[in-house]
Amino acid sequence: MTVRKFYQIPKNYLLLVAGLVWFAAGVNIIRIGITASDRNWSPLAVAAALAVFGLFYGLIFHRLIQKHTVRITGYDQSRIHILRFFDVKSYCIMAGMMTFGIFLRQSDLWPPHCIRTFYTGLGASLLMAGAGFLVNFILEQRGCRDKDSVETAGL
After folding, report:
1. pTM score of the predicted model
2. Residue 116, Cα to own-chain centre: how many angstroms?
């Protein structure tokens, strides 16, 4: 089976696709979070959302941006299928997180104000990851990123 050329894009544009997908996911998750509860934000809820943001971005998404940027820019081919901005493991993790999130919201195991706090922090970290990919795309377009370095945008 041959891959249709229509679905192939220049490899450095995969960073743009990743940035837009992560950014859109972040907007959607923040929207779900904010609308989950009409309770006022307490200082504790704000601190908890910031902690969720820090944990997810600092421990997971920052490294993920680096890993995927190195993988994408390391492809030998000049044109790559548009869905290869993720690897198989990342698609599986994403599907698992979506399934767990839907289950959590539908099961009423967590009160709405906890979902709001968690989803707002998670969504903000997804937005930041999207921004990191977009910065790496811009740096790659300008030829500013060092090809031998695993360091990427330090957002």
Report:
1. 0.84
2. 18
